[in-house]
């Protein structure tokens, strides 16, 4: 006789307690040691078989009590189900996807130029990444930009917050285009347009700053840390560091408007080896004192498909530094001091938020979506200098999904979704992380195609990452049940 299926769960243990993450309901339960041990077998063996197998290890009455609790959970709470989804299938029908692409585009991002006045060592466009494009001298033509804006405005009628952002290269190299685009979009839209720009911050002058302020434009400046860290890799074409110039330009902003950068600005920091997270924390926490409401985004340098840093750091160095900072962050939260380090929040808070804000469900559907991916073109429509449409700026070398002449190619978009879903069928249906995983197209693309090898590697990383995050949250709440209450009004982005 074939064995029965095991419950669809993930068991997690802290130093103090035993927990079960129930995939079907997305619930996390604290249990005693006996329940934690028996749970794997309740669908495989009968009650009497379990009693006989474990009566030498635990008191018979304690085993009976544990089994009674498990059976009650199964019958009344739908917990510990053996049910697995049968298929990975996108949440929306093809007709619904096309309708949203026709009416509800969220954000337009214009690649104003593929040129840059810096030559950052780790940049994916530096020429050191064989599968990515290199810097070119190409600038976006105003005619292309206007066509892109026209298309976006016509296909975002149901979007209450239309947003246009500018990207590069270094977008401010084509500042006249940005000026014209802002004026054109404001003139042709019946709604308020929200604007944003990501820049290396070296070209900002008084004219540009006043334009950004006058038009309420969000500003993200790339800054990698204190001078000795930032200037290590973020240099001009001539090899000069850029830290002093950027800080000087930020001071210009403050002199023109003391409120603007705190309310509209933020920093994007790329962390690269050799790592010194302690020094980065000190710098960015100090910077936040001058700009208390500005945001900080952190990413780690892309080492895949490149040999940039092959011999420059030990593999465990980053992990050890992160663990030390994570303990410091936990200590802050236990003391209910979450806001004292913006750097620690930028490092760790987004993953914690995904666990804290997760929904609780009755059961797991037969058809489950690949929940990390977007509808290509809907969340962000990236238009390159030639007028081609892409999923986002991180995939500007992947298959185009349309252009300004023909619009979005719905067939290509649907094929991307279906092909990615097919890839997921092989590894996701019985994965305990199916509800929480946030892998997207970017994670599994190698060159111009999806890679199952890359998918499997990313999956293993994801499972370890979320298991550690769940454990972190549980250990935190064991010390202070109210430690995460400050996240109640936070939004997952």
Topology:
Blueprint: E1 9-13, E2 18-22, E3 27-31, H1 33-38, H2 47-54, H3 60-77, E4 87-88, H4 94-103, E5 107-111, H5 142-154, E6 163-167, H6 175-188, E7 194-199, H7 206-214, E8 217-222, H8 227-233, H9 243-256, H10 260-264, E9 265-271, H11 277-290, E10 295-300, H12 317-334, H13 342-356, E11 367-368, E12 381-383, E13 388-390, E14 402-403, E15 407-408, H14 410-425, E16 445-446, E17 449-450, H15 452-479
Parallel strand pairs: 4-11, 5-6, 5-12, 6-7, 7-8, 8-9, 9-10
Antiparallel strand pairs: 1-2, 2-3, 12-13, 13-14, 14-15, 16-17
Helix pairs in contact: 2-3, 5-6, 13-15
Spatial shape: globular
Question: Main beta sheet: strand number and arrangement?
Answer: 10 strands, mixed
Structural class: alpha/beta
Count every helix, treating DSSP H or I runs of 4 or more residues as helices. 15
CATH architectural label of the domain at 94-303 and 310-331: Alpha-Beta Barrel
The percent range for helix content is 25-40%
Number of E strands: 17
Nearest-angstrom radius of gyration? 26 Å
Question: Mean pLDDT score, rounded?
Answer: 92
Question: Into which percentage range does the β-strand content fall?
Answer: 5-15%
Contiguous uncertain segments of 5+ residues: none
